[in-house]
Each structure stands twice: as structure tokens, then as C-alpha cells.
Amino acid sequence: MSAPEAQGATVAIVGGGISGLAAAWEIVSRPSGSGSPAKVVVFDAAERTGGKIRTGTVGPVEGIDLGPDTFVTRNSAAVELCRELGLGDDLVAPAAAGAFVWARGALRRLPSASFLGVPTRLAPLAQSGIVSRHGVARAALDLVLPPAALGASARADRSVASIVAPRLGAEVARRLVDPIVGGIHAGSTHDMSAAAVFPELLDAARSGGSLMRALGALRAGNSDPRFEEDGEVPLAPPPIFQSLRGGLERLVDALTRSLRERGVMIHTGAPVTALERQETAWRVVSSATTTDASAVVLATPAAVSAQLLAPHAPPATAALRAIDAASVAIVTLAYRRADVARSLHGGTGYLVPDEGARFVTACTWLTTKWAHLANQQGARDLVVVRASVGRIDDERFARMDDGDIVAKAHAEIARHMGIRRGPVAQSVTRWEGAFPQYRVGHLDRVAMIESAVASTEGIAVCGAFLSGVGIPACIAEARRSAAALMAGGTTRAPS
Ligand SMILES: Cc1cc2nc3c(=O)[nH]c(=O)nc-3n(C[C@H](O)[C@H](O)[C@H](O)COP(=O)(O)OP(=O)(O)OC[C@H]3O[C@@H](n4cnc5c(N)ncnc54)[C@H](O)[C@@H]3O)c2cc1C
């Protein structure tokens, strides 16, 4: 099997989430050179494309995202894709900035001067009130503790918590770093790979000495949005986060429509059950149809890719199976504005640390965050919030019915936000196996997958389990993989 670009051959994309659609888009957007353009066929198991990206209506409010509701702009891949699809004018920035933490019985603003929850100065940490006085004193030890002797393990990956807690104390690790870094992945920082999710922290740990000083030094002149600046996170220009007016599913719809216009065949309700190696092609077997393709992009969750690759790339399969995934649910609740005691100004929502028997891990104030939601006629006297429940170590919600999930989530956020009556509209969206876990050693697993796939001709893999769960990371990875596959080279760009 040679480079598909040269042959005007068929490329099969398995999985029609944002990764698979972006891979297809990369292939049809590329100049076809001297050969005829590749024919692209997409298979998705679900009845719709888009995977985790889904937008719906809750009560009278339309265009509410029930999966992701925003993307970072630091990685420009999502913004660029929106622009390529003619959606540039519909990109919107949040109407508010900053976030709170539920700690010590109150909603407290995240300290300014921090990097993914790691404080870079003591005074803002003390002012935030998120950790106790003892916790602040314990964090101060970071400035004077001798460097830990790492010995032979100096180059090894470590968990985020195992770096933060010994230097800054358990309170900072649990109330600040775990809700932020763990929250992004619905995982626990106790076994989350610092090398994969917070490389700056691992570098700081390796240099020995104070984490606050090392990350504070990085901060100087750094416009990285993961730094909380003094005061509010700056909004303009350019915005740190963006979304689409009408919801992120518009990106999926535009992509699906544009792909079809360019001749891409998209089969939905078509789970791929096997990949069979033929003499000159890969046979893609699905319940709907069977297609012979000279190249295949696997854009399915890790467990599915593992199963499809099992006969062809056993080392990749083993590494893929080691990447488990957390299930979550998004509980969207609409309240009458008059029933919400707390002012929701000055932030987009709050995080809840893993203390006590917390159910809700985070709460986003949707009608404060997004003007396009708040300004809808039907939303005028409503406050719409979304609560996230579930984490890799907490699957209680999976055993509850929707009514019980709503009741439990409402009881918690009513206490946090002073809400006097129940919601007037609600929805529960369950996302099973949604967040791949980047556990310690993740980069080694990715390298293993990469090398095994590179030696399996005509196959590329992409998806949220590889090098970032965010939408821009998925798009960038998918486009890179597809481009390399079409050129007949390795599937990943050198880092
Ligand atoms: C609740 C939630 C909130 C999030 N919030 C954000 C956020 O605010 N910002 C952000 O950037 N990211 C966020 N994310 C992460 C981001 O949405 C996902 O990582 C990303 O959408 C994953 O895209 P994907 O295409 O790699 O995978 P998926 O969306 O999972 O797509 C995989 C596709 O493969 C299909 N499939 C499965 N098995 C088969 C098979 N056998 N044959 C064919 N097809 C198959 C599935 O149907 C699915 O469509 C969030 C995710 C969730 C769940």
C-alpha cells in the first residue's frame, strides 16, 4: 500500500466525532496534486456525527451545549477550523471571566497569581480564603524546603499530586490543583501524569526547590491563559476562550455539511466491527456496509481503536487498553432569577474540591458566561447553570435515574448559591467513557501506540486519548495524522 495521495484512493475514517471529521476535512481540503483526489468515507456508530459535541434546548433556552461549551484559543486549531467553514463571525467570547471554588463553607474567588491552581505568590493565596491559615503557612514552606533528592527517578514521570502536596501541602493540592487539573480530565491528580498534563510542573520539580518560584518565574512575560493574572483573567484581545453563537454543534453541522458537499460519504448508525487486511487494501467492516480502503484513520475512543487494531498491531492494542476513561453527566438546570439569592457577577462558575461526599464537581453559570444565551427572549428571567457530576473515582450517578441526579445536584448547588426553589426546567446528559485518563506514564503509552501504528502501513490513529482532550488539541492531532497518512509518512508530527 503506497501513499494514498498518489492514487486517488479511498480513505476510510472510523469515528465521526470532531477528530474524525477534522481528519476528513484535512484530506478533502488538501490540493490533490497530480493524482485524482482521494475518496473519503466516514463511519460513525451513532445516529449523528459530532461525538461528544452536542447542543440542545433546556426549557425555553436554545443553543445550550450539553457536552463541551467552549474551547481555548491558545491552540488556534478550533478557531481556524471555524473560520475555514465560514463560522468566523459567529465566534463568541465569554461575557464574564474568573472562577470561584467552594471551600470552607463559601464560594471564594480563585487566587490571582497562580498557574493551574499552583499559587505563584503567597499573599493572593491567603486573601482567597480557600485554604486555612495553617494551609497558607504550610504552602509557605515551599519557599524554604530543601530540594527533594530525586536520584535515579529524576527523569521519570510523576503524578501531579505527588509533586504539589509535599511542597505546598495537602490543602493546596486538594482545594486548588486537583479541582482545576483533575477537573479538566474528570480524573484524580493522584495518578495523573505531570509530563502529559502539566509539563511545566514536572520541569519545576526536576529543577528542585520552590514550585512557587519556578512557576512564578515562568509567569513573567507569559500570556499563557493557564496563568491567573492579578485581578481578572484578561478578556480582550484576543479572548482566551471562545464558543459559537448557537452552540458548538454548529461546528459539527457545518463540517458535516461541507464534507458532504465535497463528496464525502458519511455513514451514521454504522459501527465498524473489524478491520481486515487484504492484499492491497484494508477492508472496513461495519453493520451498514463494507468498504475497501487504501488507508484508514481510526478516530474512535481508545478502547474501540484497541479492539480494531488487535489483530494488526498488538503493542498498540496493549497501550490503548491501558488508557481508561471516566464517565460524567452534565446536569443543566434553569431557575427563576428571583429564586437565586447569590449574585452571579464576576465569574463564570465554580469548582468543588474532592472533600466530604461532594456530588457536583463543577458548576458553570451559563447565562452569566454566554450573552447569546442570556439575551434570548425566553431566558430573560432565568438563571441557567450546568453542573458536572462524576469522575474516574466517583460513578455514583451511573446507578441513579435522571430524577435522582437532578435532585442531588440541585440540593448541592442550592446550598452553594442560595437557591430558594427547584429548577423550572432541567436536562441530564450522560457521557459514558468520556474523558480518557492521562495516568502516570501516558507519554510512554502514546509513544508505544505511535510506533506500533507507524509500522502498520496505511493506518493512522487520532482522538482525545492521545495528546490533549480539548477540542483544539483533537482537531490539530487529527489534521496532523491525516496529512501525514496522505503523504505516506509517519502519522504523528515530530514534537
Ligand atoms: C461533558 C464534556 C465536557 C467537555 N468540555 C470541554 C470543553 O469545554 N472544551 C473542550 O475543548 N473540550 C471539552 N471536552 C472534551 C472534548 O469534547 C472531547 O475530548 C472531544 O470532543 C473528543 O472528540 P473525539 O472526536 O476525539 O472523540 P468522540 O467525540 O468521542 O468521537 C468518537 C466517535 O467515534 C464513534 N464510534 C465509537 N465506536 C465506533 C465504532 N465501532 N465505529 C464507528 N464509530 C465509532 C462515536 O460514536 C463518536 O462519534 C468535554 C467533553 C465532555 C464529555
Please give a structural write-up.
The two termini are 26 Å apart. The chain has three domains: 4-51 and 250-323 and 440-487, FAD/NAD(P)-binding domain, CATH 3.50.50; 111-147 and 155-222, protoporphyrinogen ix oxidase, domain 3, CATH 1.10.3110; 325-436, Alpha-Beta Complex (Polyamine Oxidase, Chain A, domain 2), CATH 3.90.660. It is globular. It is α+β, with helices and mostly antiparallel strands and 495 residues long. Strand 9 (114-115) and strand 10 (118-119) form a beta hairpin. Helix 1 (18-29) crosses helix 18 and helix 12 packs antiparallel against helix 16 (442-454). A seven-stranded mixed beta sheet has the order 8-7-19-20-21-18-22. A five-stranded parallel beta sheet has the order 13-2-1-17-23. A three-stranded antiparallel beta sheet has the order 5-12-6. Residues 230-237 and 489-495 have low confidence and may be disordered. Bound molecules: flavin-adenine dinucleotide (FAD). Residues 14-20, 43-46, 51-53, 67-71, 271-272, 299-301, 304, 328, 330, 431, 434, 463-464, 469-471, 474 line the site of flavin-adenine dinucleotide.
